[in-house]
Design brief:
By secondary structure, this protein is mostly beta strands. Helix content is about 0%, strand content about 45%.
């Protein structure tokens, strides 16, 4: 429309970007002095995002106001950060909405809580700006189940003699989730022949055994509210249970 009065560029239908010192919808007015800087409602923001949230998740929205009129009161937003946020965050320049641009993994990110600076700049001449700080915290979730390292697969053990109180074996698992995520060991019912220490993973014999196979299911669970568990199998073969010869006493002579 009206070629932006030859004092600006048409950037969209019926939208002009005025040259410095000009204002108005069609750049047909002289710009007023740029008196005020944009001002954020808060000098510090806190926000959280759950790890592994989809790319494009909105984290929060900041807002700054500029009491000037016309182009001097138009506010645009940018993010200023370091290598911590490179490729991880983006801000909508006009709305102030901050989005994730990559998947954030609590276990691999070096700093789960980090600060970014948001700059609000006006469109006046000279341009003025205001800043705020946003602290973003990546929240851990239970996204890893325990993994058995001993044994690494199904295990078969052979014995000829096992007595109550003997140690059968020890299982061990790790959990890649961060924080106080203790592993608890348990075992499927085995006829009362074996027991497992829930903290150490040591399996012991609890009763007399007969020859044959014993199939055990060993379970490693984390201790979070929504628990994740992993199972492994253990087969115990008792090949032969020795029997004691009956005691005999020498015949007495009369």
């Amino acid at each position: 429309m009206n070629n932006c009065s030859a004092q600006g560029d048409c950037i969209l239908p019926d939208t002009c970007a005025c040259y410095p010192a000009f204002d108005g919808k069609y750049c047909d007015q002289n710009a007023e002095p740029n008196t005020n800087s944009p001002s954020f409602g808060q000098i510090f923001y806190n926000a959280t995002i759950i790890e592994n949230s989809p790319v494009g998740t909105m984290i929060l929205q900041v807002q700054a106001n500029d009491t000037d009129t016309g182009r001097n009161g138009q506010v645009f937003y940018t993010v200023v950060g370091d290598k911590v946020i490179d490729g991880r965050l983006a801000i909508d320049g006009t709305s102030g909405k901050i989005y994730s641009t990559s998947m954030l993994d609590f276990e691999t990110i070096k700093t789960p809580s980090f600060n970014v600076t948001i700059v609000a700049s006006d469109n006046g001449l000279p341009q003025k700006s205001g800043v705020t700080i946003v602290q973003i915290t990546v929240v851990d979730e239970n996204d890893n189940c325990p993994t058995f390292i001993e044994p690494s697969g199904n295990l078969q053990l052979e014995f000829s003699v096992l007595n109550p109180g003997d140690t059968l074996t020890k299982v061990s698992a790790i959990d890649l989730d961060s924080g106080l995520n203790d592993i608890i060991y348990s075992m499927s019912k085995s006829g009362g022949a074996f027991s497992i220490d829930p903290k150490t993973g040591v399996i012991t014999v609890t009763s007399n055994l007969t020859s044959g196979l014993y199939h055990l299911k060993i379970i490693a669970s984390d201790n979070l509210d929504v628990s994740c568990r992993t199972e492994t199998s253990l087969t115990v073969e008792i090949k032969g249970v020795p029997t004691k010869e009956p005691l005999t006493s020498p015949a007495s002579s009369s």
